[in-house]
Amino acid sequence: MVKAATAIGGVLVEAGLEWSTDEPVSSSAIGSIFSSMAEDALVRRLSRRERARIITALGAAKQEINRRWNEGEDLRDDGFFATNEEPGGDSFFEEIADGVIVASQREHEQRKLQHLGCLIANVAYESRVDRVTANWALRQASDLSWTHYMLLAVVANPDVVLPEHDLSVRPSWQSHSTWEAFSELGERGRNLMHSDRTGEHSFPNFRDHPRKQVRSPSGQLLALLLCLDRIPREDLEAVAEVLHEE
User: Within 10 A of 50 (CB to CB), how many other CB atoms are there?
Assistant: First the structure.
């Protein structure tokens, strides 16, 4: 357990101590946040797999934080890192970061972990993403599967061709499950994509084909926070091919 916490703490503290002193949130403040999270990790009983998952997600967060900093971006300075007056006294940033740690610890789909790490990093920079929205994004990111991630990315990629219509008969369980996942992204209550009716004046079809689907504003925000545009094209082509099965 101590080794697990040391590894996790190393990633967090290293990320926290790499800031220059002219940051809006000083290096000591960032270091304090990450150090307290590392200290908290000491009392968590982690299996080998849980440890590896958390380190993968936090490593991705560190990499993305450093990338944005090296490109000249500033951390948000709207009080998101400040201790709040609620029970426990955690900052809103700590709340989200801890939520990602818990989600990563339990996440069995390894390919999601890099994107969960991106959520921590992007929330640290995007002042337009308030606490409520950040928690909404975390819940969505935890609930969606890797297939959902790919489908949300593929509808925004013009280089990957989706089928013109749904299939009445699905040739395999993989095809069936992928189509179900595609449909779930547009269902009420999730509403991450919808039909693009730009310039359309005729009576709409009962069911729109996949090529007409676009991300909703919520879907665009989630894709941005999770860095879904970085999913390799070969993965997107593979999931599109399943949708083409007849």
Answer: 17
pLDDT tens-digit map of 70-127: 888 888 888 888 877 776 677 888 899 889 989 999 999 999 999 999 999 899 899 9
Report whether pLDDT(54) > 90: no
Report the alpha-carbon distance of residue 51 to residue 118 in Å, rounded.
18
Judged on CB neighbours under 10 Å (0-12, 13-18, 19+), 54 is buried
**Global confidence as pTM:** 0.83
C-beta pairs of 162-170 under 8 Å, 24+ apart in sequence: 162/209, 162/210, 162/211, 162/213, 162/240, 162/243, 163/209, 163/210, 163/211, 163/243, 163/244, 164/209, 164/210, 164/211, 165/209, 165/210, 166/207, 166/209, 166/210, 167/245, 167/246, 170/245
Rounded to the nearest 10 degrees, the angle between the axes of helix 146-154 and helix 217-225 is 120
